[in-house]
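Problem statement: downstream parser choked on a complex file, so we are re-checking the raw output for the beta-L-arabinofuranose run. The parser issue turned out to be on our end (a line-ending mismatch), but while we're here, posting the original submission so the record is complete.
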Amino acid sequence: GCQQSTGTSVEDKVTIISGKSEPLVTDIYTADPSAHVFDGKLYVYPSHDVEAGIPENDNGDHFDMRDYHVLSMDIVGDAVTLHDVALSVKDIPWAGRQLWAPDAAKKGDTYYLYFPLKDKEDVFRIGVATSASPTGPFTPEDKPIEGSFSIDPAVFEDDDGQYYMYVGGIWGGQLQRYQHGEYNPEDVFPGDNEPEVAPRVAKMSDDMKSFAEPVKSIEILDESGNVLLAGDNERRFFEAAWVHKYDGKYYFSYSTGDTHKIVYATGDNPYGPFTYQGVVLKPVVGWTNHHSIVEYEGKWYLFYHDSSLSGGKTHLRSVKVTELKYRDDGSIIPIDPYL
Ligand code: FUB
């Protein structure tokens, strides 16, 4: 992407930068990119979209993915390697269906792949699989992570070496079923003027395969310090949590779902609260918007996806990347994916 205007301070607030870019790979459809730098190289852990022939519904049944492939690159904008199957649903003992947005972490010499998957009761859980290689193949654990639920795990390593998992997604992601702690199979949503369904966080145990503490709710606050409301569709949490640190601050970014944006909030510790700041990425072609933010060789990048390559099919997406820029005050300059 190229900057459209450098602007004065007033102009700068409305500056939008171009994110126009091409799919990283075209041999398969990929989505929900979680990017990480491991051993000085850039790896992307995406969903692998397929045509399952299932009609679209609000539950997301049409996202019926069966395996993962890792992408890697040495230079952003240069050659991308599409690796062999990293993990397949047929090798996961507790699998029901639907391998959704994954993430990965490295600790010591081991690579961990975290993934949302419905169990045999059709309830989303978070699974973990390990490998000696960043590109797999990964060996899954026999059971999902104890106490895990919902979708879209994002594992963040803090500067002190502690790892945290951020998780959750409403609607098809089932987060609304845990509003009062206990699982409630009925999809009851809060009223528009009630607090939003909160995303969750848990510190990871040393073994990286379990939570070190009960899952906690995260507060996202508006400019007055009030928790975002469930009816605030332009800003409230929907899915696709991601956390990164910039200049000592924690940036919690996520998708607003039915308003199709990636937005962010900032805070001063991994548990929040986070205060809503603004838009990172405007809507893309296709219903979902899902991203990650990573620093690589001195530049910041936004990985995201859209459905351009499939001619707009929401469940057939392609991962893309563009540069992300901050203003001097640490705010993120919003990106228009098609400027
Ligand atoms: O790819 C399946 C689901 O769609 C992801 O888990 C969500 O974040 C949305 O992108």
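For whoever reads this later: The chain is about 0% helix and 40% strand.
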